[in-house]
Fold these 2 entries.
Entry 1:
Amino acid sequence: MSSEAAQINHAPDKAEAQDSRAHRARWTVLSVALALCLFLLVIRSYIIGFDWYSLLEPRSEVPKMFIGAFYDFVFVGGLTAAWLLLLALCRRHPRLLTWLCGLFILLALMTLLICMVNVPVVKTLGTPFNFPWLHYSGFLKSRDARQAMAAAFTLKTVAALLMACGGMLLIAFFIYAIARLIVPRFVTTKTLALLLVPLLCEYYIGAHWYLHERQWRYWKTANPITAFIESYFVSGNSVALFTMKTPIGPDDVLTVVERRETATLAPLPGATEPIRNVVLLVLESVPVQYLDIYGGRYGVTPELTKARAHSVIFSNIYAHAPATNYSMVSLLCSAYPWVSYMAVTEVHPDVQLPSLSGELKKQGYSNAFFYSSDVTFQGSDRFLSHRQFDLVEDYQTRKCNRASFSSKWSFLNGSDDACTVESLLDWTAAQKDKPWFGMLWTMQTHYPYFVAGAEQPYGQEETFNRYLNALHHADESLGQLLKTLEERGLSRSTLVVVVGDHGEAFRQHGQTSHGTRLYEENVHIPLILINPQLFHGETYSSIGGLLDVAPTIMHALGRPLPDEWQGRSMFSPNRHNRTYFFAPWSEYLFGYRDGDFKFLYNATTGAHELYDLSNDPAERNNVASQFPDRVREGEQRLAAWVQNQNKFMDAEFAKGQQGGILAQK
């Protein structure tokens, strides 16, 4: 046979071999994709709330499982289609086919791992991990982020992940073997495609319609990879509230000078001697509903109850965002937060807003800040360095004779809240005749809820029981503070202010922790002022927020308010009975309390919630559909607040930049 003939005979053999390789590669990708879909179906069913008993009703429940996994299937389907196209383009390149198959298997395994890790993330945050949460965590450098990662990747969890990966590959192998051996005997590839494409189209249309019609919560069904990508593109000011026209003006964010108010308010009645000193005690992650004097049924705050006769209680105070660093800015600088997923303390720590500590410094006060945890979180140390504190102390710089707190994760450390109180008392003892302002922030009531001493049983679920123990210890520490002030003869001349920085949820509205929702357990916080001269058990129902705390303190001291403050004294007769809040780390959530009504708006989904808190304090009955006028006004009022507040903050940031330029010159 001539060499030319041999080449002619060899050419078809080579083409057939290439087609065979391409065919095997296609079935490899399809088999892995099908196996991945099976595993994602199980994972998604678990997140939504299906269990094995649902399989006993296959006609009604199994179709819902497949509908619930819609976004996962769309993601896998899109990835698979793209890979099949690449395989078709590279069918004459065997080495490239091998690499593409290997890469697809790797991507499938990574998708499986991400979706498995998404289970505890959704359980904790209420949403998949997204870009705002990534930024909030300091791009996974923060203590909370590392804690979450360490908690997720225990030896048991890692073993489960590896077993799942092995199981998926094993199932993919069986699918491949069956498909290669059995399918060609009964149907051609082209016929199979013609059968499957209409079914897939019908599934896509039907499932999409069902999810929209039944209004399943998107974050329960969202694929975590596509959700993260989406969150990156919508994390800027792309929400309609930032740009929509509104007839409502900026009245709710006007400053003292813009309101043309008198800087010094009429003195509070009752004081026979001057109030010279101030303690601002911030209870970490404490809403009103767990405190006895607000109707809590747990019996964990007897010291607050004991001080009730010398206190005034404000029953409708709100955090403006369920996050510590946002509350720090509002408390000290009497301003609504920057409406962004980025914290002022981290991005603009030198913002030129006047602070409570700075104003008192001008009046000759000594100032100190005591923190039970890590003050470097999200730039708090840099922010505080611009607030005229003589001393800033956290667990790392504190000398504490009590046991410090740490877990198996070395980065989650803190000192006993009682130690923080002792640090403040030691500092006040050294101030002699100088007036002083001491601010202290607890930490044991922050997850994972550290318990000092033997844990007491309060008849609650394990995690909540730890929280109640931590809250009881914070109350004991407050009792020690009040007792020591009285022993030193300072109780009449010292104003003690107790406030929460935000709330904490324990399965109310299907959530845990605090940062993902705006329900009462997230943002409704205590504000209690204690002084035996000024207060005698009064209760005020006026609505206010953390930005009103500093003006209230200055009013009690008889000091003037700086022109730039947005807040008003809670004792002032010139108050709007309204306050605002937002949470940007899952969906973009906005809301405000106005009289008895609380309006919530999900700018990501367009959903509205309206609650009459006088009749429905637990927010179980959404009456938005009954009050369309209130809903329309709610959106307009939120748009006015968002737009005018960010204009205000942008102007303050510009002042800081100009100050920095002048300082450099």
Entry 2:
Amino acid sequence: MSLRNVSSLMIVLAIATFLTEGQGLSLRDAVAAEVRSPDGKVTVDFHTDAQGQLLYSVSYQGKPVLLDSQLGLVLKEAAPLVGGFSVVNVERAEHDATWQPVYGERSEIRDHYRQMVVSLEDNQQPPRKLQLTFRAYDEGVALCYTIAKQPRLEQFVIGDELTQFRFAEDHTAWPVYAAQGVYQKTTLSEIKPNCERPLLVQFDGGPAVALAEARLVDYVRTRLQPVKDAPFTLKAHLASAVEANTAEAMAAFTTPWRVVMVADSPAELIERNYLLLNLNDPCAIEDTSWIKPGKVIREVTLSTAGGKACIDFAVDRGLQYIEYDAGWYGHEYSKESDATTITLDPKRVPPGTTLDLEEVCRYGAERGIGVIVYVNRLALERQLDEILPLYKKWGIKGLKYGFVQVGSQEATTWMHEAVRKAAKYQMVVDIHDEYRPTGYERTYPNLLTQEGIRGNEEMPPAEHNLILPFTRGLCGAGDYTICWYSNRIKTSRAHQLGCAVVFYSPLQFVYWYDRPAMYRGEPELDFFKHVPTVWDETKVLQGEVGRYITVARRSGDTWFVGTLNAEQRRELKIPLNFLPPDSKFTAEVHGDADPTGADSKKVKIDVATVDSSTILTADLAHNGGQAIRLVPVK
């Protein structure tokens, strides 16, 4: 541990004092303490300066990631919890466990960290107490604040947070300013206020860092904003979509986690995205057998006949759900629309259209296909307690929450309560539109997916799709809405096939702008039929942000490999060394039939016998892709 400039009243704590698991230390005016990850590569250092301000820093393999960065909370109608602090106690612990998610990108997740809880008192009379919890994982660092129950802080309002992230240089970053926005490649000095999280930051020569948030359940979300007169420094700003960007709380209260993900490369960050899940509470649903991930087709005619046609298509094409979107109970933006009724919006359907939703649910249940319905927030906020038991009676399996409010403490609390209420009626949930996950799906896995992503509803270019896995993909499932027949798609169709592997979503919409009648028996669409939506193992084989990526995922003994490409025609080598040795696989390779990009609609299928020593070649159009299914040879 290095010495710092401190007053003569302060001492340096020897690291060896803290290494025993669970051992506490009570030393007032302690100025420095650190905790290292189990593999020793990640270090978080905490200290107070001469004014008692709270500072921390992070390093990775001895290289500074964050320089001394401020900590603190701003309270309304009370002095801020910022300076004048002294250390009262430091408690240390180590945790190592493996848990099995109900579903996910991997069937097992290791939760291994070393923790340091720093208890502090300020110089107010009587002193106010604050705890800082630091966790050092091999995957990065997490910290949170706890305000203990105490006479002067029984109730309080947090007006802002002063958690800073101070970088040494003007590193490359990929900010976005709306959850469904367009990413930009820029530098830290060019980042504007209200930057969304996670934020990917790339150091020259490594490492790659992502600033994120976890366990946001009943608090104001944070956004990142630059700190004035502090180069290359960002702070976690409490940012609401409405004016109420404060958090009311009663002690004892713990904030969400502030997370610094670290890895050698952006591709490796993707493989470590389970860190946010580890920072959430375990599953709270005792019986999860009813939670069924799967693929979905949207029903657009809002009719009984259309629903049955989608169900027949789902059975034939290996889907698990159909979804009735906006308009089935009236105009979604009208406060007069009643979600307890089936009242078709005349602006969306021709005269004479009829919908018997209970009959469609019955028909689907006979064929093993679930029905999901869209409900806008205007109806949800008024009628949620009424519609959940009603929809259960009708046979509906899930809801898509539309245009929910995000940001404020009230909106955040309501949203997660709505997920919990849905679980009581065994309903799966898909949240649209600006909502972004922070790992709550571990606690309530009926939250299968959410939007917070610019997907094919906006028809983004390939370059955007090649940023998403390294940014939005770090925080959880994204409902990208994969398409096939639409002429507005800006990528090749082989690219769309690859999206089903690269973009993780346990509830995966396919054929978003398509209808069953469009299907012409294209053999390449068998890939959509076979590809699952959840996985036992995930590997990122290669990738550069905004340029290309190859992801391999395993379900049982079958592997699926998705490659996406942007910028230019590119030839990539796909090594299959992740396959078990001494085993043969049949590789069904779906690629761009015309890599020049002149005809992006054509897909070629090649079949070969391969093993772990095989290296496949992908000849990719500039907006192209490839999708591979690897089936063991029996």
